[in-house]
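Case study 2.
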Amino acid sequence: RVCLPCLPALVPHTMADHSQKGKRLYLEGRYEDALDAYTSALATSTSPKADHLHYSNRSACHFMLGKYEKALHDALACTSLDPHWAKGYSRMADALAALSKKHSALVWVRKGLELDPHNQHLQQLKLSLAALGKEPCEVTGPPGDDPIVTACREQGNKSFKLGEWLEAARFYTEALEGHGTNGVLLSNRSACLCKLGEYQRALQDANMVVVLHPNWARGHSRQGDALKGMKCTKAALSAYSAGLELEPSNAHLREMVNRLKEEPNTLQETQNVPSAPPSNRPQPKPLQPSHQQNGPKSVKAITPEYFVVAAPAEVVTCHTFDPATRQWAKTRISVQIDPYSFASGSTRSAFKMTIGSNTPGDRCYVAKAPKPGVPGVGDASQFWNDVEMHAVCAGVAAKFNARQPPKKVSFLKPFLIVRAAPHNTTLFVEPYMPGLFCKYNNNTGWLSPDHRLTPQAFSHFSHECTNGEMLVVDIQGVRDSYTDPQIHTHDGQRFGIGNLGTQGFQQFFSTHVCNAVCKYLNLSTPTYRRYTNLVA
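Prediction:
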């Protein structure tokens, strides 16, 4: 069955109920359960202005569980939502000290004491950290004894110099796996994202660089670049000025400060986008970044560093598909949908969505909406076919995995939601996949330059295991967890206008070269001479 095993019903408890439960569980030392409760409080929150409290409490739970990087991310979310609350900086300093970044921790301890001079915890932290002196401006690269990380960083640097921003971002992301608090890698990826026009994500990386290395001018420079790209002139000037104060000889910072001082600040800035922690820095206005592509690329999107949805809860109708009976079922659930897309293609835009649940990993989803004025592929009517297509592909994947290939594959289990007035829209929803999103082939014979074996072999296998009736293409996803496939059929029926029929068969096999996985599965290559007259 293709269903949602953990799809919750409408949660009857309020944000206050979950918050009180989390407080009680924390005092009892049940930190995992308290973490779930505070996560549920965020999911059911109807007052985003109070969410900084839940992020602070969740940061404390992560800290007690020894998950210091997660504690740091939640502390940053807390200070971004309320930069005038001293406890947020206390959480940040605790996490940094636990990550052996004691000099950086001291900077944020002092910031917290500016807001609350009598805070005893911050005073104690200051006494234990003050003897370390000022943090050096230099930051180190990834560990030298990790050849994979070093190789990814070097490849990223090479791609960056060649102007291949997507490839460079991909390598930096791979290097950051397991080293998520490395300032150099985060700074480099922020620069790539700026080049790609992904300013909000660039700002997220830059903010973390400043948290980790507040005395490093480059982190402030990255912040300024991202904010300038978002046309938040006043906030960008503040970031560039902070960097110039640390490094007065920096020509780029001086040039940007002088240039922005001459520009009128015509934008009204709000607090909806995570800003840098200092309290006197204006908050940037949330924009809707797009990810336009001229032709297929191997990297489709870089996922957000942390999943935050600041939107009120709403009740929607959820539709799930059972492939065994070919029947649809529906239920009512409570969700939160970010009003701003984090990625966009030619026909659809993607929005972060959460479902009220006690397990953080089970509550994060991506909701896709059709772009206005794009018929066929883009409109919501295609979504119903897409869910059925995923179910068919999941069945093919089960047969593929039964042959014990070197790497097994899977397809996400999507569903649909229908929003009530004033939205009155149908959205295609799938689980959020953290990691690097790559596209491996498309429905017209294009192949990714990554030259991965498993995706191509799976497409070939899909044709053979269905006796030449179907071919699964448009393989894309994170590693070998796939989504948004397309199926070609021998008769050209079903599965939308992306089904090119035998022409799609011919186009795939005209570029496909059997690889080691194909040979391992003992796949045969069909001939399509009888179809060549169909292809121009």
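DSSP finds 18 helices and 14 strands in the chain.
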